[in-house]
Structure formats: C-alpha cells, structure tokens
# Entry
Amino acid sequence: MDSRTKGKTVMEVGGDGVAVITLINPPVNSLSFDVLYNLKSNYEEALSRNDVKAIVITGAKGKFSGGFDISGFGEIQKGTRKEPKVGYISIDIITDLLEAARKPSVAAIDGLALGGGLELSMACHARISTPGAQLGLPELQLGVIPGFGGTQRLPRLVGLTKALEMILTSKPVRAEEGHSLGLIDAVVPSAELLTTARRWALDIVERRKPWISSLLKTDKLPPLGEAREILKFARGQTRKQAPNMKHPLMCLDALETGIVSGPRVGLEKEAEVGSQVISLDTTKGLIHVFFSQRGTVKVPGVTDRGLMPRKIKKVAIIGGGLMGSGIATALILSSYPVILKEVNEKFLEAGIGRVKANLQSRVRKGSMSKEKFEKTMSLLKGSLDYESFRDVDMVIEAVIENISLKQQIFADLEKYCPQHCILASNTSTIDLNKIGERTKSQDRIVGAHFFSPAHVMPLLEIVRTNHTSAQVIVDLLDVGKKIKKTPVVVGNCTGFAVNRMFFPYTQAAMFLVERGADPYLIDSAVSKFGMPMGPFRLCDLVGFGVAIATATQFIENFPERTYKSMIIPLMQEDKRAGEATRKGFYLYDDKRKAKPDPELKKYIEKARSISGGNVDPKLVKLSEKEIIEMTFFPVVNEACRVFAEGIAVKAADLDIAAIMGMGFPPYRGGIMFWADSIGSKYIYSRLDEWSKTYGDFFKPCAFLAERGSKGAPLSAPVEQARSRL
Ligand SMILES: CCCCC[C@H](O)CC(=O)SCCNC(=O)CCNC(=O)[C@H](O)C(C)(C)COP(=O)(O)OP(=O)(O)OC[C@H]1O[C@@H](n2cnc3c(N)ncnc32)[C@H](O)[C@@H]1OP(=O)(O)O
# Structure
C-alpha cells in the first residue's frame, strides 16, 4: 500500500464469474476516500468486464467495515481536504453506480458493519453475514448522520420504528436479530460466508433469488399519517434527551423527507444535511472525543517501549465498602478471580452482599442469566487475613481515606504478597508516595482510582508516581481494557486529575451563593449547559461527609486558592448531609425527588457572616452564561495547572477525564477543547478581573496567563521538560 494512501480495495474475478471486492484498511476497514474511490474504479471495471456476472463485497481479516473513516471528517473540518461534491459518494457512487447496476451485488459481512459499512451493504442486493456480525448506524454518536443512504435504506429494510431506534440510540444489532428484521438475508458460519455470498449473487443473476433494491422497497414503511406521528414522537423525545444538539433533529428531517417525498429526494436531503452537520461545534466536539478516548491508552515513554502486559490471574481487594464491592463486581464480571478482604465477618458479609446485589440487579433487568450470576459469584472469595494473598498478582486497596491506615496496609501487603504483585490504591485524593512510605516497593505502587459506582462508571484514573514502573502501568492499562474501562494515566498529587478539576467547580458554586446567587438557578443553568446535574444537587448525591473530607485535603494542600465555605459544615452540624438524610441543598421525598428548601437561606446567611463576605448585587443577577463562566472557568484554570505540572500528558486526556469523571457534556469536547473553543484570551481576562474583585480563588495560573496573553490554544502540548510523566 502506498504510504500516502489510506487503505484500498482489491478485486479478484473467479472462474464462476463473480468479482470479489475486498475492503482493506486496517484495523477496521474504514471507508477512507481512497477506499471509496478504489471501490468505484473496481466497480466500473467489474461492470464493464464480460467475464463478470455479479459482485460480492467483503472486508479483509474478518471485519466488513467500521464505517466511513472518521479522520476524514476532521480533514474536512480543518480544511485540509475538500469535501467531495455533496451527494457524490452516496448518490453517484453508492446509489447510481452500485445499487442501480445491471449486475447484482451481495455483501458478505463478517464482524463489523457499522455506519458507512452497513450503508454500503444495504445498497447491495442481498446481505449474508456470520453469526457474530454487528450491524449498526452509530453516526449520531459522532455528531454526524448516517450518510451513505442510511437514513433512506434502513427504514425501508427494517421498518421506521426499528430504524429510528437503531439510529437514535446508535446501538448495533447482532446478526440473528438483523436476520429476523430483514436486514440480513442469511446467517452462515464464517467458513461458508464467501461461497454462500458468491452463490447468492449468481442465484440473483439466474433469477433464483430476488433482485432487491433496498431504496425502492416500500412494504416495511407505515402509511404516511402513521409515519408522521412516529416521527413527531421521535422529535419530541430527541428534543428532551438531547436539547443542545441539532444533528439528531436534522437526521429526522432527512428520514421524513424520504418518506414524504420519496427516496431520491430523501437521499438529496440526507446529503445536504450530512454536509451541514460536519461543521457544527457539537460534531467537532464528539469527533474529538472519539479519538481522544482511544488515545488515552497511548502513553509516551510507557506504551511505546514494546512492553507486553503480564497476565493478571488473581486480584485481591481490601475493603468491601461501596468502592471495594463495586471494583470486585467489575473484576468478576470480566472473569477475574477475586479475594475480598475485610476486617471482620460482619463487614465481609456486607461486602459480599453488595457485590451480590450489584449482580442481582442485572438479573432483575434481564441482562444476566441466573446461571451466569452463579458462575460470576463463584469467582469471589472472602477473607479476613492476608494468607490467601500469597499468589495474587494485583491488590487494590479500597479502605477509607485515612493515611496511617493505608500505610499499615501497604506495609502488610509487602510482607504477604509475591514480589511481582502490583500494589494499587483506590484513593481519590491522597499522595501515593505517602501511602507507600513504609514500604520498599515504590516501583509497584500505583493508583487505581475508580469512580462510584465502580462497576458502572467508565473511567479508571491510573495514577503513576515517579517510581511506578512502566510495566505496572502497562499491566493496569490491560486490566482496565479487560474490565471495559477507559483508563487515563495521570501523575501523582492531591486529587489527581479528576478531583482537582472537580473541586473548583463546587467551590465556585459555594462562593456564588454566599455572595447572593440563587443555588437553584445555578443548578438549572449548569444542567442546561449539559451536566447531568448541578453542583448543589451533586453535593447532595455524594453526601456531605465525602464533600468535607475532600475539602479538607484541598485546604491542606492548596490553601492559597481554596475558597473556605462553611455552608456544608453548617448543614452537616444540623444533621442534614445530603440525599441520604433526605435534606441537603434540597429536600427529598420518598421517591428521592428533589425540591428546593426555603430553609437553605438560613445556612447561606450564617456561612456568609462567618466568611465576612457581602451580597454582591452583580452576582445576585447573573445570567446563565455568566453562571457557566464563573463555575467552569475556575475548572479550566485548574485543568491548566494539572496540564502544566505534567499530571496529565495530553490535554485530550483531561477532556476524557472531565467527560467520564465529572459528567462534562461530551458534545462540548471536554474541558480543554471547550476552553479553546471560547479562547484562552477571554478566559484569562475574565478570571483576572474576578480575582481582582473576589480574590485568589479566581487567580489565573501562570500557564493560563502565558497562553492567554498570546491567545494561544490551551491544549497545545507542554514542552517535554516540564512534563512529569
Ligand atoms: C462524506 C462522508 C459521509 C459519511 C457517511 C457515513 O454514514 C458516516 C460514518 O460511517 S461515520 C463512522 C461510523 N462508524 C462508527 O461510528 C464506528 C466507530 N468505531 C467504533 O465504534 C469502534 O472503533 C469499533 C466497534 C469499530 C471497534 O472497536 P474496538 O474496541 O475493537 O477498537 P477501537 O475502538 O480501539 O478502534 C481501533 C482503531 O480503529 C480506529 N477506528 C475505528 N473505527 C474507525 C473509523 N470509522 N474511522 C477511522 N478509524 C476508526 C480507532 O480510532 C482505533 O485506532 P487506533 O489508532 O487508536 O488504534
């Protein structure tokens, strides 16, 4: 393959008169422009050759295609590639050349047929797949719309309701379901895929099998009035679920046009909308997230050293509380045998009970069978001592945030665990060097910071000290992948990356209410911005105990920029500690529905009198935009510090940490991406102004000041010399 081209297709014509065109673009045979243009010329050749009767399209190495090459969107957005004439691929190539050809095509689908991959196959006249095939149109997840005729052919093949479900949820279906839906014509074992597809293609030529153009099918479409009702409902749901995104509604427009005005007009509408969505900010954000998420496992100086992950056969977890039991659940769900250690029978039983409850909830929801439940639970063993730790490959400590307790545990682990065993801590804030102070095992000490509930939340912060070996990081990255987490490798400091970014967010909110802003308006503005909930609702959810413990760590370690609000401690004194006590910033009913509490004013006023601050008329009347700036610019400021200190190696890692750890809206691309979309100069100037009026909590850090003064992007790499990793 030419090093300048991205992928290709090859065509082989057999003695049976079938031309087999194979898509080749590792690792997922994505449809780059090179692949698509090659496909076009193979088709033209096949159609003009007298020895070719029919065509089979397949993908190399067990994967049909993961869809259009997503980096192509980036090239179009940056202007480094000119977008082809609107509709050139979907109409001129896929519809007019391929589907309308006088020779039939059959798609032979193994593995993946996603996005453009499935769309290409739907333009073929039949689809044969293997049992493991995944078929889906996940484009909306990327901020784009199904572009190669997907909005027109899928409803005609599987019906409007199912097509909407597949497109709006971005979830693929398996081959068998695809078969029952009419998306797939036959499911055959891998070894028979090509021969069946070839025969099927010849059968179409011989009229033994129907020659079906998906675009011309109408039998699965509901009557017009019903279709309009279905689409109206879908629009309503979409507006509710994705209020800040335009592309899902634009996609529905393309679907509706095809149903109302016919598929050709629908294709034209799809092409027009498809070209418009590429330049939406939300699309840029989502595409950035796609690549950033895959980039977190590429750690310079660690994963580029040719190290292979060691096999982790058995894991021990210390502490069966909420975190320990969640981590144990995540591990046994991915088939790791786990020992759960507690200090007494009662706690051990409770810990195992929590794991059981986590799995039982899956059984109740129907996502786990009873047999699988029993099998999974059998991987968990309880223990009250360290004797069974003699053959474990990794220990994850998940006890309360108490330094001396953790130090004792790590000293004990060093005695009982084998030399190679990884010693990990799930601490969320404590310096790992302190935790390992009483050991000589600093090279195998690492942070494995999970987020609660650990078996559900997708992020794993892997915390590396200056002593942690690269091998240990590689091992933990591998475990993270196996338990389906997105790992982000960060450096060691109080709060690591996520909590360091999180803390100023809640602090800014406390500051604003102490100066007169309405907490419920802040929560509402932040939710509208796209966070799952506002800072006050969040404090209630995590509980004030956790909030105070975290604040203590930050006050101790970053006193110069910590805003010391007394609102939470005052409420805690009155035994209102958040949702668990039914009272916090909100009041909670039996169904845990939150409602504002007029009594909150009392605590705010008292906290204000303690801090000596005054109500500021400007802050009482903040607009939603100002609320967002005053709560999130301090987060950007801290993210800049984390980046400048080398705690995160790439700004994109902070984007993923903010999205998966804080709930920052993915369509805004993550905290640094969002900041750059606003501009460093503006963010710097706002923080600078606020710091002069309201104090050092808002003071821009040196990194932000430097980049802000030049208007330089915050996400541009930091020079190596300054990076700690
Ligand atoms: C004019 C344009 C019109 C376009 C119309 C069309 O309708 C639009 C599309 O088709 S958009 C693309 C739709 N497809 C997808 O959204 C699929 C995205 N990919 C995935 O979901 C997954 O990658 C996977 C299920 C295909 C494979 O998952 P797995 O966990 O096995 O592997 P990774 O996710 O780590 O991916 C491995 C590497 O492959 C790269 N990659 C995957 N898909 C694409 C793609 N469509 N384009 C380009 N690159 C892709 C991914 O980035 C990984 O690369 P690394 O360098 O990190 O290894």
Remarks:
- The chain has a mean pLDDT of 96.
- The longest strand covers residues 18-24.
